[in-house]
# Entry
Amino acid sequence: MAALTLSKGALVTFEGGEGAGKSTQIGRLAERLVGELGLAPDRVIRVREPGGTVLGEGIREILKRPESRIGGPAEALLFAACRSQLVEDVIRPGISSGKVVLCDRFADSTVAYQGGGRGLPAALVDSVNRLACGEVRPDLTVLLDLDPAVGLARASARDSGKADRLEALDLAFHRRVRDAYHALARSEPARFLVLDATRPQAEVAEAIWHEVRRRLA
Ligand code: Z5A
# Structure
């Protein structure tokens, strides 16, 4: 298992279905990296996918809008365009300058949603991810795992019942996404930390902190 060290930068990605608690846990981890580990605030970067750049935020709006008509391959390419720009503008420079980059979704999301959910061929998904990420790979990926029915209900409660284009897809789609995440985690056990996202927020945060500290030590 590759150890993250404070002398060099690191990429920690958060994955899982809607409402799994990714944003919540990224916020908690960022606070502890600064407050407990003593990293300067500017050494911790938080980004989200799709988004994090002017291009990415623009495409995000199109991708989420319920009325957008986007086929599977176009969807994969749009997510890849966002990722490519984010890697170039923020992630690669961040890691090179010794920062800890906390990313809300990354290439595994395309494997899970466009591969598992939409059924695009794995080879196609791999090639767009390779184009978008280049040599950049997460040092640690936290997979927050929960039944999609529970996650969608959480997201819906948070957003007053409004569902975006992807959230509105049926439960079977979201179950395929979850299965794809499980397969990814099984194929790279050293990179993935899989946590039961139905546990209380504080317990999930503690498990993440334990793993991050162990790797940063
Ligand atoms: N997508 C894709 O298809 N392909 C790709 O390559 C990429 C993305 C990169 C992005 O949506 C969509 O794009 C996403 C996948 C797709 N779509 N779908 N469907 P997004 O960025 O808007 O949202 P998201 O990434 O799906 O996350 P989210 O719904 O915002 O949820 P979250 O960040 O994981 O959860 P949260 O906001 O931290 O928590 C949700 C609520 O649950 C909130 O009220 C919390 O207080 C509560 N919560 C959090 N933790 C707990 C625990 N432990 N117990 C109880 N309640 C909790």
